[in-house]
Design goal:
seven-stranded antiparallel sheet; two-stranded antiparallel sheet; alpha+beta; 2 domains; 13 strands; 35% helix; elongated
Length: 188
């Protein structure tokens, strides 16, 4: 009877030790990025580094201290088009260094960044070019000149929009991002 009790206590103690090193699914981990990540240059599979913003506590035990190194990967990257399709980049956390020096592999939700819409900028450039062309054409050649000037100005505005219109997604260095674990994570 006593040996069963001792075994039970040992197994419970062992279970508590193991569970203290298990990060449950749904846990929030906030990491500050070390470098900028841009859809213009990032590629799927590219790694990034960061550090924990606050202590990672599991079952009342601190398993990783604030400032601990963290690693992640770019899971999606698409550069911006010139006149449409702003850039996009998605990153995921892949591991955290624990207080004991071991690495804890994690599976997390993605953080997605998207560049600004091209619409307002393009309308301003094309519309402004058309208006300027109409004004200049109207002064130079009357009604027919205004019509020609509108077409020429709109074409010039479209050229300007195409030359300057990339809207990349950027995650700036030192950005604090909160990831959510999608599966339990066990320290090795």
């Amino acid at each position: 009877m006593l040996s069963r009790f001792v075994r039970l206590v040992f197994l419970l103690a062992l279970g508590n030790f193991v569970s203290a090193q298990t990060l449950p699914a749904g846990s929030h981990i906030t990491v500050r990025t070390d470098t900028q990540i841009s859809s213009a240059s990032a590629h799927t599979g590219q790694t990034f580094r960061g550090s924990l913003v606050k202590d990672l506590v599991v079952n009342g035990k601190t398993v990783a201290k604030a400032g601990a190194p963290a690693k992640g990967k770019v899971s999606y990257a698409k550069s911006s088009g010139r006149l449409h399709d702003p850039g996009q980049v998605t990153i995921r956390l892949t591991s955290i260094q624990l207080a004991n020096g071991k690495s804890l592999p994690v599976s997390t939700s993605g953080f997605r960044a998207q560049g600004k819409s091209h619409t307002k900028s393009n309308v301003t450039k094309v519309g402004g070019g058309a208006a300027a062309g109409a004004l200049i054409g109207g002064f130079a050649g009357g009604g027919k000149g205004a019509l020609i000037g509108t077409a020429v100005g709109a074409g010039a505005g479209t050229g300007v929009a195409a030359a300057t219109g990339k809207e990349e997604a950027v995650i700036h260095a030192e950005t604090a991002i909160t990831f959510t674990t999608t599966a339990n994570a066990n320290a090795k």
